[in-house]
Amino acid sequence: MKRHSLILFLVGSAIAFSFNSCVRSIEKVHSTELRELDPALQGVRKSFGNRQINDVSTWEQVRKPELIDYYENYVFGKRPSFNPSVSYSVLSVDTISIDGVKMEHTEIQADFKYRGRKMKSYYAKFLPLNIKDPIVFVGLNFFGNSTLDTLSALTHSNHFVMKNAGVKTKGHRVTEESRGTKAYRWPLDLIVGSECGLITAHYADFDPDVNNGFLDGVHGLAEGRVHFRKRNEWGSISAWAWGLSELQSYLELQPETKNSKTAVIGHSRLGKAALWAGITDKRFDMVVSNNSGCAGAAQFRTMRGEDIEKITKRFPYWFARNFQSFRGNDSLLLVDQEMLLSLVAPRSLYVASASKDAWADPEGEYLSFYKSQAIYSLYDSTLEIPYKYPAPKEANEYGSMAYHLRAGEHEILRWDWERYILFALDQLK
Ligand code: GTR
C-alpha cells in the first residue's frame, strides 16, 4: 500500500470506528425506532471540540460548563457578580381560607441596597398550616400579587403591566378592579390543599417588561445609570431569573421553609426565566416550564412559530445583544433547546405544552424534551422516552422527567397545576 493510501485507510477506519461507537452508545439508550433520529440526539452529547460525552463526569466537567457559557454569552447574557444587601419586613401575616382550604398567608417587603442604590420587591407567600418544610413552588407573576386572590389585601404593583383582556388596567398599571383577576392561574386551594406552598412576586419588581434602557429593576441596582452595555451582557430574562433566586434565598432564611424542596415554575416568558433560573441556581430541586416556547423549551431548528428574528425584534431587551446576530439564521446558533433542558439534569424537569399554542411550537417543545434524554439517561440508564408526540392527556412521566400536552390555548391552568403538584409530590417528598 502506498503511503498516502495507508493514511487514507487509517483515517477512514478511525472515522468508521468512532461513528460505530457513537451508534452503539446511543443504541444502548434508545430503542430501535429511534435510530433514525440518533444524529439529532448526538448534538448535546458532542462538545464544541468534538469530544463525545458518554458519562456524567465528562458531561459535568466539559459539556455542561461550555453550554452554560454559550447560553450566557449568546442568548441570555452574562449577569455581573454583585452582592446587594437585602432586608425583609413582614407587611401582613394572616390565616385565610380559600375554597375551604386554610393557609398562612404572608406579605413581605424585600429591600435591596447596593452602592447607595435601592430596589424593592413584594413577596406573597402561602403555606399550609403546621407543616414543616413543605415543598414550595417558586414563581413570578405577570400582573402583580394583588391579582392572585381576592381575599388578602395584597399590595398592588405600581409597575408597568401588559394590556390583558381579563385584567382591569389604567395606563399600564393595575387598578383595584383587577384584584384577583388572575386567581385562575394560581389555584391556591389545590397547591396548599396538597400540602405544598407558593411564593411569588411581580416579575416587574426585578425588571419592568419595557425596552427602556436597563436603568430600572435589578439592572439599575447592579449597574447604576452610567453603564456601557457589552454585547454579551444580561437582559430581562436573566434579571427575572435573578429574582427567582432571591425568592429561594428568602425561603432558606425562614425556619418553616429553610429545608423545603422547591420547584421553580413559570409560564411563557416567565417559563423561559424559570428554566434559566433552574439552570443557574442548583438550589431549585425541580423546574417547570409551562408553554415557554421560543428561547424556552421549543427547538429553534424546527422553524415553526416564533423564531429568533421575531422574538428579538419585539423583545430585544430580554436577551444579550449577541442573540440578535442570529436573526434569520437560527441554525447558526451552536445550541438548540434540548441542550437548555439537559442543563437541568439530573434534577426533576417538567415541560408542558398546549395543543393550540402554535406560536410556542408544542411539537418543538416535545422534541427538545425527547432529545434531552440523551443527558438524563447518563444519570438514569433505564430512561427511555419514545419519539411519539403525545396526545393531550395525563402527564407522561419518565424517571425525573415529565411532559404533558394540554388541549387548549397558551395558558397556565388548574389542569396543568394538578399534574405539576402530583409530579412534585412524587419526586421531592
Ligand atoms: C409572546 C412572546 C412569547 C411569549 C409570550 C408570553 O408575545 O412572543 O415568546 O413569551 O409573549 O410571555 O406571554
List the helices and strands and how they pair.
Elements: H1 3-29, H2 38-42, H3 56-76, E1 85-98, E2 101-114, E3 117-128, E4 135-141, E5 169-170, E6 173-174, H4 188-193, E7 196-202, H5 217-223, H6 236-253, E8 262-267, H7 269-280, E9 286-290, H8 308-314, H9 337-342, E10 348-354, H10 362-371, H11 373-379, E11 396-398, E12 401-406, H12 414-428
Parallel strand pairs: 4-7, 4-8, 8-9, 9-10, 10-12
Antiparallel strand pairs: 1-2, 2-3, 3-7, 5-6, 11-12
Helix pairs in contact: 6-7
The structure holds beta-D-galactopyranuronic acid (GTR).
Description:
This protein is α/β, with parallel strands linked by helices and 429 residues long. The protein has one domain: Rossmann fold (3-Layer(aba) Sandwich), CATH 3.40.50.1820. The protein contains twelve helices and twelve strands. The strands form two sheets. It has a ten-stranded mixed beta sheet, with helices on both faces. Helix 7 links the parallel strand 8 and strand 9. It is globular, with a radius of gyration of 22 Å. The N and C termini lie far apart (66 Å). The structure holds beta-D-galactopyranuronic acid (GTR).
Question: What would the average pLDDT be, to the nearest integer?
Answer: 90
Name of the CATH homologous superfamily: Alpha/Beta hydrolase fold, catalytic domain
* Radius of gyration over C-alpha positions, nearest whole angstrom: 22 Å
CATH topology: Rossmann fold
Number of strands: 12
* Quaternary organisation: single chain
